[in-house]
Amino acid sequence: MDLDDLFDNDHNKQKHNNDHNYRHEKQHTSYQRKNGFDGMPQIIERITANPKLVRIIGLTVILIAIVLIVLIIVLFPAILELLKFLTDNGLKGLLDLIWSGAK
């Protein structure tokens, strides 16, 4: 047995291990894709397949929209008052008011 054969044999073992690792990794990722999480399309498919969940999500979206609209309506006069104060006194006046406190 020659010295070159010894090194060549190590190279073949390493090549075999690399091939084995590649096959194992490829097999593992394909298994994950088949049995695991595929992303947004899978979520949408599961949601649309469940009518009760569709109703719950729909009602939640409507409720959130109503709450946001009510908040905007309630806070609109305060926002207008803040804008009026800013146009009269500027940002420096607002910062002075915050720093010294309302008197």
Keywords:
103 residues; mainly alpha; 3 helices; 89% helix
Topology:
Layout: H1 3-35, H2 40-48, H3 51-100
Description:
The chain is mainly α. The protein has a domain at 43-101. The protein is 89% helix and 0% strand. The chain starts with a helix and ends with a helix. The relative contact order is 0.04. The mean pLDDT is 78. The chain crosses the membrane at residues 56-80. Residues 8-28 have a biased composition (Basic and acidic residues). Keywords: Membrane, Transmembrane, Transmembrane helix. Residues 1-36 are annotated as: Disordered.
Order of helices and strands: HHH
Distance from first to last alpha carbon: 98 Å
CA radius of gyration: 33 Å
Fraction of residues in helices?
over 70%
Calculate the mean pLDDT score and round it.
78
The computed structural class is mainly alpha
Largest β-sheet summary: none
Q: Report the portion of residues in β strands.
A: under 5%
Number of helices: 3
Number of strands: 0
Uncertain segments of ≥5 residues (pLDDT<50)? none
Task: Tell me, briefly, the overall form.
Answer: flat
Short description:
With 103 residues, the chain is mostly helical. The protein has a domain at 43-101. Helix content is 89%, strand content 0%.
